[in-house]
Model the fold of this input.
Amino acid sequence: MRGKSILLIVGGGIAAYKSLELVRRLAERGINSRAILTKAGAEFVTPLSLSALTGEKIYHDLFSLTDEAEMGHIQLSRSADLVVVAPATADLMAKMAGGLANDLASTALLATDKPVLMAPAMNVRMWQSPSVTRNRAILENDGVLFVGPNDGEMACGEFGPGRMAEPLEIVAAIERALAIEGPLAGVKALVTAGPTREPVDPVRFLANHSSGKQGYAIAEALARAGAQTTLISGPVSLAPPQGVKLQRVTTAREMLAACEAALPADVLVMAAAVADWRPDIAANSKIKKSTDRVVPLIKLVENPDILASLAQHAQRPRLVIGFAAETDDVVENAIAKRRRKGADWIIANDVSGDVMGGDKNRIHLISEAGSEDWPEMTKTDVGARLAARIAEKLKGAA
Ligand code: C5P
Done:
């Protein structure tokens, strides 16, 4: 669960104090919270306590220009793996069931593309009223998850269902919701991305044009499909993907060590453009331009082949996927590469155009069954389609 995050919407009810405890329990498990506090919620807990516990600023005003400039309300609604409403009041349930969007909380609920979990808390008569019963049925039908409410004595003195579930019960529901999210739940994925940099001296290096975009998109898609995903990335200027454990490295040798340390894994996607060679010696100080115009010679030595060595590793992942960036005879070269490297699949792409650094990709998936040619699509779509193919393959093999 480490690295996952929730967007917590705190509604107005006496149970709101339990949401502070919930944030703490989640933090202990490495699950981050970002919170929206409704106007009514702010009558029960202060933005300061929530912000101190989440370590983030608290969002509460739909029309704050400063907030919109930092993170728009649509982006906020999608910034986490799960939206949790605790306490979920009758009002918030009614708004979501009816599709109302007149404050930040209801707008986020309408705009989100993530699963929603509600922990209702209200007076027993309210909970049992025909309208709340109706709204609950609508929400359940829309796929909203519920935890509680529990039976017990209420703050108002009445007895019956309506008490918000206890923080640890909500934590368990969150863990379930995060884990059952996709077809790759329970699968461990290891992805590499970006170039490697091989130092010549303290200020110079050899590298390539890899942007890391394809590998990052694959890591994010695998995580979204429920895989516990580690991304080992060379130097790139991309934001860390959602829900992924990111480890940054520089050289091929560091990447190999990081990959080995991340094993065991069920699937490896080696999307990094690893430098094939490195200068045999990286000078300790900057190599000076000589006065007699003698040009320094850089002798190159071969880098370890990470893909080939993980394909032969004692802890070899069940599915080993490599990339083949080619400028000619794309499919033929990739078929040979699959065999040479001991990979199960090779994703071949023609990089003679502007694929490197671009947002689109056209790939051929080379497997034991031959070559599957995919139409040109965005790198995000390649990630999603590949995650679906991986799920199919692992399920078939299970
Ligand atoms: O041999 P070539 O570099 O074309 O192979 C590409 C595939 O091998 C990619 O999946 C790349 O990540 C991987 N590779 C590697 N270690 C290297 C070179 C490439 O893992 N030293």
Observations:
- The mean pLDDT is 91.
- The chain has two domains: 5-177, 188-397.
